[in-house]
């Protein structure tokens, strides 16, 4: 058993960290108030190979392991978890396309997906189905030319902003086996978007409903096999859950680093507040919790990389544990900043807001418990 990062993994982390500190961190607050991320950022990230982190080399991707990818998201989140998490969604879609799209579709779209000239959104949730995703109702009717889509997707990160949408739609019977995955390009007639959602965090990412009204796509935009779409969507989520957890971890680490520094500068009762033992113990607790979260996350990533039979369970456990730990830590960081933690200038309140949603999406943390307990009961 080797818990050390390899030289290459350390280099990947350092490269992502340096990029984030230079190109994301200084602008993160501005992008938050703008409610959008400049489109010009994405091809820059694409040049680092981060547009296709675990897409195979044959398809032009970086072919990194899931563990390597968590390092990228941990490092980028130290600059801004909202930007990093958006990149995770694109990567989840890119991997689904790489695994399941046919050669013609791949030849047509993958070069721009890899370079991040095409930014992707993942469309599963609907107004009437979130956790119970297999109850989705958006229909794709087969026509001579392809499919006609009707329905609404809710909460779509990048809705109205992205260049293409990887959508789970119903082509057949009720339940998971009637679901297929299709690729819908921006500008397709019949594709429109709801108003931008006003949110607690992740404010730099536009979130909107995606609407299909007799939206016609060619047959070649079917991804993989009809009826297998739900399976593809769930396979994408295992890795997505690791990445979201890594985003919580990196942001919480950044919060803890800022707090350590702040506590050496802030004085109360004639000494810097880092001299109060009660507060030192809280620092220690945060360090212990984050290190435990990091180890657990990397173990889950290792399981996914190695095709372990309990990889899904470990991804779910790590997602729950790391996202809750991350939120707990940044909340403590805010407390240790006193009133200043509540002010936007200190950068902590943004972390509290941004990380909260990590307990809700990519499967809520209740659904993570459902996955874990189901496996426990089945293995009795
Ligand atoms: C900012 C943001 C961005 C998002 N981006 C995307 C995106 O890009 N693409 C996308 O497809 N979706 C996206 N989502 C949607 C997200 O995945 C869903 O909100 C999430 O899956 C929960 O679904 P829901 O909101 O319908 O809650 P519900 O499913 O209605 O759940 C409500 C509550 O009931 C609990 N619950 C439900 N079922 C059970 C059960 N069986 N046992 C125990 N508890 C249960 C839930 O955990 C939750 O606490 C995003 C959401 C947000 C907030």
Which helices and strands occur, and which strands form pairs?
Elements: H1 7-23, H2 28-34, H3 41-47, H4 66-77, H5 81-100, H6 103-114, E1 120-123, E2 139-142, E3 146-157, E4 164-170, E5 179-185, E6 191-193, E7 207-218, E8 222-223, H7 229-265, E9 267-268, E10 271-272, H8 277-305, H9 311-336, H10 348-356, H11 365-378
Parallel strand pairs: 1-4
Antiparallel strand pairs: 2-3, 3-7, 4-5, 5-8, 6-7, 9-10
Helix pairs in contact: 1-4, 4-5, 4-7, 5-7, 7-8, 7-9, 8-9, 9-10, 9-11
Brief write-up:
The protein has eleven helices and ten strands. With about 375 residues, it is of the alpha+beta class.
Description of the molecule:
This protein has eleven helices and ten strands. The chain has helices at residues 7-23, 28-34, 41-47, 66-77, 81-100, 103-114, 229-265, 277-305, 311-336, 348-356, 365-378; strands at 120-123, 139-142, 146-157, 164-170, 179-185, 191-193, 207-218, 222-223, 267-268, 271-272. The strands form three sheets. It has a four-stranded mixed beta sheet with strand order 1-4-5-8. Strands 2-3-7-6 form a four-stranded antiparallel beta sheet, with no helix packed on it. Strand 4 and strand 5 form a beta hairpin. Helix 4 crosses helix 7, helix 5 (81-100) packs antiparallel against helix 7 and helix 7 packs antiparallel against helix 8 (277-305). The longest helix has 37 residues, at 229-265. Bound molecules: flavin-adenine dinucleotide (FAD). Residues 89, 121-125, 130-131, 155-157, 199, 202, 207, 357, 360-361, 364, 366-367, 370 line the site of flavin-adenine dinucleotide.
